[in-house]
Amino acid sequence: MMLELVLDMSLERLQAVVETLPNQVRAALDNAAAQALNSRPQTIRKRPLPMRIKALRSFMVKRRDEDLAGDIMRTYFLGPRKDLVAAFLDATGVPHEEGQIEDDSEPAADKVPAAVDELVEKFEREDVVLYLEIAAFQWPEIEGIRTSLDSLKAAA
User: Fold this and answer.
1) Is 43 buried (19+), middle (13-18) or exposed (0-12) by CB count in 10 A?
2) Which of 79, 91, 102, 108 has the highest count of CB atoms within 10 angstroms of its CB?
3) Burial class (CB in 10 A: 0-12, 13-18, 19+), 141
């Protein structure tokens, strides 16, 4: 699921996501890119970022590395985009600690549409859509998430 989300991103979008991640995470991603190019990590770090992103995607395609894709998405949404996650969880009544859900709580279905409208006003649309993709996977029984996601995609 996470692998599909990452692979469906344009190279430019993936680069924008990677650029926001902490240095140590980007270094680990460079290691994966280096493997794809049969190169050393020190050498790959000297290459332009677009080339490293292309190599990273190649690595994930070849290895079908769901864990790496999951790490990218988790780090992105619990790091630089934590405010988006917290806003959704707060607006839908899901208890959390810094965006991390502590139990099996679910969003209140009746609050999802208003929460999504609020997210679209405050955050980048691409980030909202990406987060809703994850939320729809995490809570497939909450139909309002998928409906809101489909609406946002249709409006784009």
Assistant:
1) exposed
2) 91
3) exposed
Measured in degrees and rounded to the nearest 5, phi and psi for residue 68 equal -65, -45
pTM for the complete prediction?
0.92
Contact 51, 59 (CB under 8 A): no
| Domain spans in the chain, listed from the N-terminal domain onward | 2-77, 82-155
DSSP 8-state class, residue 125: H
Among residues 32, 60, 34, the alpha carbon closest in space to that of 46 is found at 34
H-helix or E-strand spanning residue 96: strand 96-97
What token pair was written down for 121?
Answer: 């006003």
- Those residues whose C-beta lies under 8 Å from the C-beta of residue 9, and which sit 6 or more positions away, are 17
What is the distance between the alpha carbons of residues 120 and 128, in angstroms, rounded to a whole number? 7
State what percent of residues in the chain have pLDDT above 70.
100
